[in-house]
Amino acid sequence: MGNIQLNGDTKLFGIIGHPIKHTLSPVMQNAAFQELGIKATYVPFPVGVDNLETVLKTLPQMGVSGVNITVPHKQAALTLMDTISEEAKKICAINTVLFKGNKLHGHNTDGIGFIRSLEEKGINPKGKNALVLGAGGAARAVAVALADAGVKELYLYNRTRERADLLSQHIDHHFTYCSPHVLEDHQIRSKEDLEHIDIVVNATTLGLNPSDPIPVSPIFFKKGTLFYDLIYHGETNWIQVAKQSKMEVLNGLSMLVHQGALSFEFWTGKPAPVETMQTALEKYLCRSEN
Ligand SMILES: NC(=O)c1ccc[n+]([C@@H]2O[C@H](COP(=O)([O-])OP(=O)(O)OC[C@H]3O[C@@H](n4cnc5c(N)ncnc54)[C@H](OP(=O)(O)O)[C@@H]3O)[C@@H](O)[C@H]2O)c1
Fold first, then answer.
1. Which of 11, 79, 173, 199 lies 20 to 30 Å from 156, alpha-carbon distance?
2. Phi-psi domain of 233 (left: phi exceeds 0; alpha: psi -120 through 50; beta: other)
3. How confident is the model over 248-272, as pLDDT tens digits?
4. Distance, CA of 221 to CA of 125 (rounded, Å)
5. Whose CA is nearest to atom 30 of ligand 1?
6. Is 74 a catalytic residue?
């Protein structure tokens, strides 16, 4: 797996967001290009909200082939696409753009990436009761994916109740067979309300800082419930406490890899080398955490 020489034939991909300094996507996408011998490179583009439209219109003219879109642009990008995939329409956000000529084709791989990360562990959410904590971009993709996958009951909880209500209405509108329940503050401290949950997903930013409180205590859940933290940097306190309480646990690394692999496939039309991407990330995180 040698380094690819950059020259006039090299295809260019990237990620647009703000802040973007800590993105891990270049690590896994460049590893994938190298593994398959594709003459391409992937770089971060720091782009503020005021410049999103100009940048998205300019990049294809500069020969860029595709980009990922991250915080804070995922929803704003939706209005700037020429075509939008069914998946992106369902989530109402874009995380992947393919440039063809001057046309922008928008897609979203977060939800399928999340489901693939479950499938990889032999977990099928169909018929299960799931609780999603948070109502931001990640929670939206996960909640929509769970509704799409046929969960039995979907519960939502967010610090700002109105945002959970909006997400619930969105899902209710798009999926005739799924009508989410928005939990009140007292309900996420109640065994009666939580002990039938099979999968709980932390899609809040709680845990990014080691001094953060845990989003919900495992004491209210039955043993063996899956505690899935979307944070991908090692083990959060929440995951550690859940393990001590005999819960199943998963962190966000696998979702990160799968959403990236699906973006790679959308751009290149080739099967992504998922293992290579995962190993590149694990090695990088191991180096940066030591
Ligand atoms: N593994 C992956 O592939 C992947 C992909 C995307 C995101 N993520 C992770 O998912 C998390 C959420 O990302 P996002 O893009 O959805 O962020 P976001 O859009 O900014 O949403 C943040 C969410 O966290 C909640 N929150 C923030 N501070 C809180 C606090 N002190 N107490 C309770 N809730 C709080 C917010 O609630 P309010 O509405 O009340 O503000 C909101 O629901 C991040 O940790 C991110 O790293 C992982």
1. 79
2. beta
3. 999 999 999 999 999 999 999 999 9
4. 17
5. 206
6. yes
Domain map (residue ranges) of the chain = 11-108+256-289, 112-251
Mean pLDDT of the chain: 96
> What crossing angle do the helices spanning 253-268 and 274-289 adopt, rounded to 10°?
130
Query: Which of 204, 217, 263 has most ligand 1 atoms within 8 Å of its beta carbon, as the pocket-test mutant?
Result: 204
Q: What does the DSSP 8-state code read for residue 65? A: E
CATH topology of domain 112-251: Rossmann fold (3.40.50)
pLDDT, position 6: 86
CB 112 within 8 A of CB 87: yes
- ω before 72 within 30° of 0 (cis)? yes
Calculate the CA 285 to chain-centre distance. 18
CB 75 within 8 A of CB 92: yes
Across the range 219-246, mean pLDDT stands at 96
Global pTM reads 0.96
Residue in 74, 90, 222, 283 annotated catalytic: 74
